């Protein structure tokens, strides 16, 4: 079976969040199951392009509206990612340093989608499945079925995966002219709430809709940024499949980024060594429990509750804890978190930005991971934490609900700390629980850690479920 994944992100080429991690791993595991999975994404101006070898496999031109544009397709030569990677280059549109955040993002990603389909439509054969990811590729199912120039691939099955339903790619109808000519009787399949809505269109037009966890699929029927009725209506073709993680890349036994490698048997010494290195770097006391937050500093992650929660937790525990934040996002929040470093030297610190190596070392060093998310379609950080023997502290939502069981339930067979609300009060209570476990029940934590490191959250299971859907 030949599967074409179309996405705006793919790690390690270009990544802004979990979407990149998924598209960088799922195709590799599908190939290992004996299928042919490929990834098509925009050619951004990124380091990966300069550091790897590519070959030109196609050049052509087509229209976006009345504008005639040329595009080219580059293929990564060595198959180093475990799948064929194709980059679509469109001068002036895809050749940017950032993935998102430009005023013409609608035009950029629409041109990318048009070029992708224009290219596939010229193949000597047709693929079995086109698997689209998030709203940046959401118009592909509609165009494949109803655009006049794509009749060759109109019968190819489509799967659409929602990684975050809050972002939908809205466009005014004044941009309708940018789409390839299509059957006007089908124009309603583009629309939601008087706008062109790529995510809504994909839900209507794709053969199967998936989300990245079962609980998130249910939540979208009640909280989907205006699309609740659509998800209720289309529920017959919607299902949630929990994301996996790449157990080869995220493996404390062999992770080349770590200060010290370890496994479930040597975790005590291994985590202690990594914690000592992090504490030395950031000026912490390694005797105290180390809490980390890794993620985007945005409302979806409830990041705005971090400053007050950190203040309260430090005060309640007389400074005998360590807290480190790694992330970027809202500039005001970045400034607040940075300013707090002077107030709480030796207790709190932050790194504004993203550093892949530091993230790996934090998972290996930390005792607890903070995830107070308002919205978490799946969440991968909690799975990375489990893999590295760090206790996740999560809000009871989305994929966090599906992957973390409270440590105090089922005769202590759980492996995390779960709370219900993305508030300062709930997060501080959770931190208090964690400090109590760390100080008074260390033997229980030491029994929990090897068990959580053995949990199988790998992609093998999820990849098989997707293959079943394609079939």
UniProtKB/TrEMBL annotation:
Domain Starch synthase catalytic: start-end pairs: 3-231
Keyword Transferase belongs to the record: yes
Keyword Transferase: yes
UniProt cross-references to CDD domains, sorted A to Z: GT5_Glycogen_synthase_DULL1-like
Main EC class the enzyme belongs to: transferase
Keyword field: Glycogen biosynthesis, Glycosyltransferase, Transferase
InterPro entries reported for this sequence: Glyco_trans_1, GS/SS, Starch_synth_cat_dom
Pfam families per record: Glyco_transf_5, Glycos_transf_1
Domain Glycosyl transferase family: start-end pairs: 280-434
EC number: 2.4.1.21
Catalysis performed (reactions): [(1->4)-alpha-D-glucosyl](n) + ADP-alpha-D-glucose = [(1->4)-alpha-D-glucosyl](n+1) + ADP + H(+)
Binding site for ADP-alpha-D-glucose: 15
Gene3D superfamilies in alphabetical order: Glycogen Phosphorylase B (3.40.50.2000)
Pathway: Glycan biosynthesis; glycogen biosynthesis
Main function: Synthesizes alpha-1,4-glucan chains using ADP-glucose.
Family indicated by similarity: Belongs to the glycosyltransferase 1 family. Bacterial/plant glycogen synthase subfamily.
NCBIfam families the UniProt entry points to: glgA (TIGR02095)
Official protein name in the record: Glycogen synthase
């Amino acid at each position: 079976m030949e599967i074409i994944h179309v996405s705006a992100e793919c790690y390690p080429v270009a990544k802004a969040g979990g979407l990149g991690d998924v598209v960088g791993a799922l195709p590799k595991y599908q190939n290992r199951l004996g299928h042919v999975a490929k990834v098509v994404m925009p050619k951004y101006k990124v380091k990966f392009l300069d550091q790897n070898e590519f070959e030109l496999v196609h050049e052509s031109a087509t229209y976006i509206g009345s504008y005639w544009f040329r595009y080219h397709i580059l293929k990564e030569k060595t198959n180093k990612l475990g799948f064929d990677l194709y980059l679509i280059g469109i001068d002036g549109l895809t050749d940017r340093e950032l993935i998102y955040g430009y005023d013409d993002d609608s035009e950029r990603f629409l041109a990318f989608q048009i070029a992708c389909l224009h290219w596939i439509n010229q193949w000597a054969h047709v693929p079995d499945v086109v698997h689209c990811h998030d709203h940046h590729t959401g118009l592909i199912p509609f165009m494949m079925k109803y655009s006049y120039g794509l009749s060759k691939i109109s019968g190819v099955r489509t799967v659409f995966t929602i990684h975050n339903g809050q972002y939908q790619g809205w466009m005014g109808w004044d941009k309708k002219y940018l789409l390839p000519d299509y059957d006007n009787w089908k124009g309603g399949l583009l629309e939601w709430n008087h706008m062109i809505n790529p995510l809504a269109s994909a839900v209507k037009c794709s053969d199967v809709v998936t989300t990245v966890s079962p609980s998130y699929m249910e939540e979208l029927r009640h909280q989907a940024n205006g699309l609740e009725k659509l998800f209720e209506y289309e529920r017959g073709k919607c299902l949630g499949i929990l994301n996996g993680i790449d157990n080869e890349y995220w493996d404390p036994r062999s992770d080349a980024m770590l200060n010290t490698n370890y496994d479930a048997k040597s975790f005590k010494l291994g985590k202690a060594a990594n914690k000592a290195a992090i504490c030395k770097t950031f000026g912490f006391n390694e005797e105290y429990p180390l809490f980390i937050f890794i993620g985007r500093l945005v409302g979806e992650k409830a990041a705005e509750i971090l400053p007050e929660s950190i203040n309260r937790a430090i005060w309640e525990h007389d400074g005998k804890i360590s807290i480190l934040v790694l992330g970027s996002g809202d500039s005001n929040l970045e400034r607040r978190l940075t300013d707090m470093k002077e107030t709480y030297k030796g207790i709190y610190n932050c790194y504004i930005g993203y550093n892949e190596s530091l993230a790996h070392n934090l998972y290996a060093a930390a005792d607890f991971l903070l995830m107070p998310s308002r919205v978490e379609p799946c969440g991968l950080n909690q799975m990375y934490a489990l893999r590295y023997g760090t206790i996740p502290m999560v809000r009871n939502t989305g994929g966090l609900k599906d992957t973390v069981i409270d440590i105090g339930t089922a005769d202590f067979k759980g492996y995390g700390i779960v709370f219900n609300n993305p508030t300062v009060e709930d997060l501080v209570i959770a931190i208090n629980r964690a400090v109590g476990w760390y100080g008074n029940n260390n033997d229980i934590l030491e029994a929990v850690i090897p068990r959580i490191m053995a949990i199988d959250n790998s992609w093998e299971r999820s990849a098989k479920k997707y293959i079943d859907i394609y079939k």
